[in-house]
Amino acid sequence: MSLSSHLQELKKKHQTLSDHVVVMQRSPATDDLEIANLKKQKLLLKEEITKLSTH
Fold it and tell me: Are 38 and 17 in contact (CB under 8 A)?
């Protein structure tokens, strides 16, 4: 897998997580811990994307 395709996949995963967080935050029966975990995953992906983009 090339670096650019890997970055695209990471960006797609990040966007999917973002969308999921937004949907969960709008739901009244949302688990705050699950949202926090998703946000943590988003942050880790963002850090990896940034790291790979600078190289």
Answer: yes
Give the pLDDT of residue 30. Answer: 85
31-41: burial string, b at 16+ Cβ within 10 Å, e else: eeeeeeebeee
HSE (side-chain half, CA atoms, 13 Å) at 47: 6
pLDDT, tens digit, for every residue of 2-41? 989 999 999 999 999 999 999 999 998 889 999 999 999 9
User: What DSSP character marks residue 47?
Assistant: H
**Number of CB atoms found within 10 A of residue 12's CB:** 11
> Phi and psi (nearest 5°) for 34?
-65, -40
pTM for the predicted model, two decimal places: 0.85
